[in-house]
Amino acid sequence: MYAAGEFKLEGSEKETVYGMAQCTRDLSDGDCKTCLDGLIGDFPSCCDGKQGGRVVTGSCNIRYEIYPFVKA
């Protein structure tokens, strides 16, 4: 599974956040969601207040930045 997107931060006139989530092919949809939910829980400890960040495991990863990093 792979997904990428972008959104404007509320209350911000300049910031767009770009994000990406990915799981390995061996994970079911449910296991992928569980893996990504766990990574999202790790974001406050690694990336709080940062302009970009990523959390990577062997089965799934998520990333966000304030610049586009995924080629369409």
From TrEMBL:
Source organism, top-level taxon: Eukaryota
Subcellular location: Secreted
Main subcellular localisation: secreted
Ranges that cross the membrane: none
UniProt cross-references to InterPro entries, sorted A to Z: CRR_secretory_protein (IPR050581), GNK2 (IPR002902), GNK2_sf (IPR038408)
Pfam families: Stress-antifung
PROSITE patterns membership: GNK2
Domain Gnk2-homologous: 1-69
Keywords: Repeat, Secreted, Signal
A GO cellular component annotation in the UniProt record: extracellular region
Family, similarity comment: Belongs to the cysteine-rich repeat secretory protein family.
Protein name: Gnk2-homologous domain-containing protein
